[in-house]
Amino acid sequence: MLIKIGLTYLDPYEVAMASYVAATKLDPEYMYVTLRSGAETLVYCSQEEFADAMKEYIVSPPEAQSGAPLKPDQDADEEVTLMELALDGFSYLARDQCGELFAYKEAPIRNGAIWDLPRDSDFRHVRDDLFGFISWSDETPRSIDALLDKK
Predict the structure, then answer these.
(1) CA distance 55 to 18
(2) Per-residue burial over 58-83, b = 16 or more CB atoms within 10 Å of its CB, e = otherwise
(3) pTM as predicted
(4) At CB < 8 A and 24+ separation, what contacts does 30-33 make?
(5) How far apart are CA 95 and CA 135, in angstroms?
(6) What is the distance between the alpha carbons of residues 87 and 107, in angstroms, rounded to a whole number?
């Protein structure tokens, strides 16, 4: 079953995650949607349009029905982040002394208060609120493959 949101047709039961990207002078506002298959697409619409189109397909957890504050699904966010990083070729995670978390394509080494790369290689900042178990005191960077095997 497909529903139309903006100019895009989606199967609402295949939507795994969606995040809003605000409009700029050059780009209209849109939703960045990840499907359960891992495919990604852009849906050009407002947050309200997306929420209205999806509201009858979203099942609220019991906590939401009771009025209790919702806790983000940390494990799901971490697993999706690990899968995205692995697909983009990143192999390691490490947290600098200041608490910032980074993904690396090659194994970084300690250099003062940061993890650094021995030569030019790609790295990416990762949300600092994820992977709280990764700390500056870790002796070595964490392998993304090993973390995915644990999930």
Answers:
(1) 13
(2) eeeeeeeeeeeeeeeeeeeebebbbe
(3) 0.52
(4) 30/6, 31/5
(5) 5
(6) 17
- Ranges under pLDDT 70 in the chain: 1, 20-28, 57-74, 150-151
- At position 19, the amino acid (one-letter code) is S
Residues 141, 145: Cα–Cα separation, whole Å: 12
Show the domains of the chain with their CATH numbers: 3-59 (2.40.50), 74-150 (no CATH)
For the chain, how far is it from start to end, CA to CA, in angstroms? 31
Q: Which two tokens stand for residue 14?
A: 């295949």
Q: pLDDT (tens digit, 9 = 90+) per residue, 118-140?
A: 777 889 999 888 899 999 999 99
Burial call 112-136: b when 16+ CB within 10 Å, e when fewer: eebbebeeeeebeebeeebbeebee
Residue type, 90: F
SS3 state of residue 136: coil
